[in-house]
DNA sequence: ACCCTAAAGTTCGATGCTAAACACTACATG
DNA sequence: CATGTAGTGTTTAGCATCGAACTTTAGGGT
């Protein structure tokens, strides 16, 4: 069978192959591939994707979009007074300044942030979290924490430590190849079954 | 300094906080957070993002976009004769059929795939890999394999096995919450430092 | 044979993003 | 002070995507 149904004779969903099947196909089509590496990369990407979908759904229930939440997070991470320029925001979120201009427009309209020219340097603009924005962030944070705890539920403390360590080392490796990479160029399309390599 | 530079007195890049700093801030702003969970989730997301950027760059050197590569992968994974309908492709890539129509248009123009109505069922359309498409896929695959090996370079065989196992279990957990989730709703924005929770 | 429903793909209108052009401010230099 | 240059944010044009409406075909029930 092509996909997950395999044998159950169900409605035969043409969904996506399981990770194992995917790796097997890659081995057949491209023998030089390392199955273990491919498994890791595929799982990483698919996991990321699924979590993203879950976040989107739950945030929608809160009345905010994923895009808005990104901005809220960036502002909170900036620390009090939860204030950042559009340019900084754009860099941190991996967007162009132009996109950030529009995104902030919407968020100002929704009352999540305010926009004001800087007093001391009139080239600059300050985007600042409102009380409502901070509340929304908190709500989303609580929700996310619950979900994340659920995802990691089957892992023991040792495993969590190991996982955190391994991921951190991988991150160091990637970042060393990628000078500073504030993050332009982020296609960030989708990959469903193909994450084998793409979204990593 | 706000971010990574910290003390080096460099050009003071306003990049993004290191994972550790990020988690520390979250602890301060939202004490209920579990630092270990947050570290894992943040690292996962950031790793994914960085890898995605790297793929995009390298694919550009090959003359194809990330979007195109997704389609090539899906077709190869479908097995010979490397043929799938627009609808199936859309499901697997997490796009709407409308988007797939346009994406296929471009790829037909580039000679990577062909589009033809199905002989036996004239509602259906077959998108099929061309020789050039398959060649491009192979080139990209080789490139990706090299990069992925580099990312995992610091990990021993044991660690790789452990990692693969843990990720697979996490994936199972997420997918159980998320019925089948072919994948609509995928906002898939960006998150830079904020991946703390969002892109997962 | 004739509907009726479901399924597949495309077309249409709106949205959000990128890249490039533009406007404005600060600062250094003469 | 006048001017050049760099930095910051917005505007514009084009593109990819989504959601919804539409067209065409297949298959079932009468």
From TrEMBL, chains A, B:
Residue ranges occupied by any HTH marR-type domain in the UniProt entry: 37-172
Superkingdom of origin organism: Bacteria
Coiled coil location: none
InterPro entries tied to this protein: HTH_MarR-typ (IPR000835), MarR/SlyA-like (IPR039422), Tscrpt_reg_HTH_AsnC-type_CS (IPR019885), WH-like_DNA-bd_sf (IPR036388), WH_DNA-bd_sf (IPR036390)
Pfam families, per the entry: MarR_2
GO BP term, example: response to stress
SMART domains attached to this UniProt entry: HTH_MARR
Annotated stretches, region: Disordered: 178-200
SUPFAM superfamilies assigned: Winged helix' DNA-binding domain
GO molecular function: DNA-binding transcription factor activity
Protein name in the entry: MarR family transcriptional regulator
Species this chain originates from: Wenjunlia vitaminophila
Taxonomic placement: Bacteria, Bacillati, Actinomycetota, Actinomycetes, Kitasatosporales
């Amino acid at each position: 069978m092509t996909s997950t149904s395999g044998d159950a004779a169900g409605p035969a969903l043409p969904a996506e192959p399981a990770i194992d099947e995917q790796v097997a196909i890659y081995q057949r089509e491209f023998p030089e591939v390392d199955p273990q590496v491919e498994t890791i990369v595929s799982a990483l990407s698919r996991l990321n994707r699924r979590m993203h979908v879950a976040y989107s759904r739950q945030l929608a229930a809160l009345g905010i979009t994923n895009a808005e939440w990104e901005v809220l997070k960036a502002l909170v991470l900036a620390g009090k007074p939860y204030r950042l320029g559009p340019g900084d925001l754009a860099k941190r979120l991996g967007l162009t300044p132009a996109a950030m201009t529009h995104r902030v427009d919407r968020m100002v309209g929704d009352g999540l942030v305010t926009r004001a020219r800087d007093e001391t340097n009139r080239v600059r603009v300050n985007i600042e979290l409102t009380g409502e924005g901070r509340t929304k962030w908190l709500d989303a944070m609580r929700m996310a924490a619950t979900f994340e705890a659920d995802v990691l539920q089957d892992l023991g403390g040792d495993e969590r430590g190991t996982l955190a360590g391994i991921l951190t080392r991988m991150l160091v490796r990637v970042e060393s190849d990628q000078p500073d990479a504030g993050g332009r160029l982020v296609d960030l399309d989708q990959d469903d079954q193909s994450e084998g390599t793409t979204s990593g």
